[in-house]
Design goal:
The structure is a single chain. By secondary structure, the chain is mainly α. The protein has one domain. The chain is built from 5 helices and no strands. The termini are far apart.
Length: about 80
Amino acid sequence: MSNSFFRAIENKTGVSMEDLFTLANAISYADFTDESQVRKIVRKVGKLANKPVNKELEDQLTNSILQKGNSLSLSDIEKML
């Protein structure tokens, strides 16, 4: 894909492509049955989305993700936030 495409995404979202690729890579290889990994991903998505994730919300999201296990996608996490 062209650099202008990535720049357009960065401009629209305010998130660098490097950060998005890092997150996508982490999600690709994550074990969604491991609570500590799930919590890290929830915090990363919240930070990138510039959405505050308090302890209660983190607990709710983590429990929901753990119940879904490996059938979870980045889109699912974004919808939860």
